[in-house]
Every structure is written in C-alpha cells, then in structure tokens.
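User: My collaborator sent over this chain with a note saying "see what the structure looks like." That's all I know about it. Can you take a look?
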Amino acid sequence: MKLPFHPSAALLCGVLTLAGCNSQDQQQAANAPAAPARDDDAARKLDTYRQLLRIHNDEMAVTMGHDILDHHPDSAAAKEVQQTLPDIEKRWKEESEKRRLDALWLYQVSPMQGGTQSTATIYSSQPSGNDRVRLVLRRHTDWGQNVFLYGGGHGFVCRGNCTIHATFDGKEHGIKAFAPSTGEPALMIRNDDDFIARLKKAKKITMDVTLVDGEKKETLVYEVGGFDPARWKALPGKK
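Assistant: Without extra context I'll predict from the sequence alone. Here is the result:
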C-alpha cells in the first residue's frame, strides 16, 4: 500500500539534515584555533625571538625563528623573522664549527722524566675510534721541541729516514720522519718548525703512513683549524 506524501515530513527531514551539517561545521570551527589566538601566539614567540637576539643567544634564536616560520608562515612575525634569521643562523653555524674544532685539541703542562713538558695534542678524525692516532706538539725543558705521531699497535714502518706524503689543505708536501730507536709506536717529524708553521695556516692535514702490523697503509686526517698557539705554553730552556 502506497503511503501518502506529507510536505511537512519532507520539510522536517530537510531541517534535520541542515541541523546536522551546521553541527559538523560548528564542531570543526570549535576545533580550529581562532585567528586572534594564532596572532597572539605568533606575537609572543616574536617577542621571545627579539629578546634572544638582544642577549645574543643565537642557538635559541634560530630554534625560535624556525618555530615561527613553521607554525605561522603567513604572519607579520614570520616576515620580520625572515629579515634576520639567515644571518643569525649562518653566524651560529660558524661559531658552532669553531667550538667543535677548538675542542679537538688538548693542551697540558706536566712533569716528564725529570723535566717539564708542554703538549698540544689532537687525535685523527680518520681513522676514528680505537684506531685513532695522536699528533703531538711537545716542548720539554731538556729535550726541546718535537712533533710526532703516536699510535697503538706496534707503530709505523720507517726504515732510517722516510718521507711521509702529506697534504696541507690539499697542497702536497713531503715530511721527513724517523722511527725512535727506543721502540715506541711513534713517528718523529724531523723539521718540526716547518711542520708547525704549516699547521698554523691549515684547516686540514692528511698524512699517508704504513703501520707495522701487516704493513697496512693508512691515511691519517687531522682537522687542525682550531689550534691555538697561545695555549701551547712555552717553557724555559731549549726551544
């Protein structure tokens, strides 16, 4: 049996449908942050960013600047940040790299076999871990000035005088060296003054050596750009 059509019923369905749509729209609107709230958040973060710039906290300023750009890309705060952030971030990266390079060096003054020694030491960046090889600049009150490599294992192959193929920032240079007769796993550099002068101007030094263990050939890499001559203390006596 066909039921009669009532216009009022159709109207009621339309009203209910419209009410449902309005309810969904209202829920979505409630979940979305209000524009004034977003503006206030951007303004607060911008104020923090400005304060970090004033106290020269570049690391936190970079973090806050990127937070503003990520979360409020179309805001007035983002436009202001874009004017200063690139330079701040560049400066922060340069300062961070300088601190990293500085920290690679260790400076010590200590007693050594009846005298006093002053050393500046850096480990190889390559190889790393347990296979690292130390590059040591040493001043001793009795022995004078020396530069040498000191590694683990049984030392280096160097019969009499040998020449280490080295580069200083990519420029090739041969280094005369010898193995100590006392048997330490070391390789002594003959012209220490020349080596130190070149090191002071360099950012990276490589040296090709041959290890006693298996006569394995190895390229040692040193990031020496953080060397501070003033921290390698001079001592009385020999040079």
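A starting point for your reply to your collaborator: DSSP finds five helices and nine strands in the chain.
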